[in-house]
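Per reviewer request, we include the raw input and output of the structure prediction for the construct analysed in the revised manuscript.
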Amino acid sequence: MTNFIALAAHELRTPVTTISGSALTLRERADQLSPEQRNALENVLAQESERLRRLIEQLSTSPA
């Protein structure tokens, strides 16, 4: 069970870190970014949010 929790935490940490960093960059530096850079960050937010959603869905349907 401990290995499962460690693996789940690792798998969740990656998209959460990316989402957090991208959101912070947009909030703090949006006016300094080109439209292409903002678009890239928005795409990363969408992709990693979807990845996080899938991971959570897998965890909630995994047998205990």
